């Protein structure tokens, strides 16, 4: 029995190391960034960013009419946010700020656009964003690199 607990304690020690945590936070950053990046890509015209697909203005005016912003403002803000914040997350730069911005976007989507999607979709996005806000980008992020450089 003592041997079993020893094995368990070593496994827990490895799983809670800075490297394991950094890898998990990297995966979390990539997963959350991927959700919003892919959504942003559906809003750009053929040929890519930054040309916004004109149909988005009609979609926001009709399908997402619950938004408290005019589509002329909401569409470009959404397109830029769905590209900028995921890119920052991917590199782990301004991780907490970017995750907070995506959490606000998630809540706006939940409240004004798809109120029936909390479980399981938006709750998972919110949990991922919250974890990144609390823990930061982890060992494998530009945030961590800049923190090490500042300490020198």
Short description:
The protein has 152 residues and is an all-alpha fold. It contains seven helices and no strands.
Descriptive terms for the model:
mainly alpha; single chain; elongated; 152 residues
- Residue-averaged pLDDT: 94
- Structure class: mainly alpha
Q: What proportion of the residues is helical, as a percent range?
A: over 70%
Query: Termini distance?
Result: 46 Å
Structural shape: elongated
- Radius of gyration, taken over Cα atoms and rounded to an integer in Å: 19 Å
Query: Count of helices?
Result: 7
Strand content: under 5%
Q: How many DSSP-defined strands?
A: 0
Unreliable stretches:
none
Order of helix and strand elements from N to C terminus: HHHHHHH
Largest sheet: none
Describe what you observe in this structure:
The protein has 7 helices and no strands. Helix 2 runs antiparallel to helix 4 (71-91) and helix 4 runs antiparallel to helix 5 (95-113). The termini are far apart. The mean pLDDT is 94. The protein has helices at 2-15, 18-41, 55-62, 71-91, 95-113, 118-135, 142-151. The radius of gyration is 19 Å and the shape is elongated. The longest helix is centred in the first third of the chain and has 24 residues, at 18-41. With 152 residues, it is mainly alpha-helical.
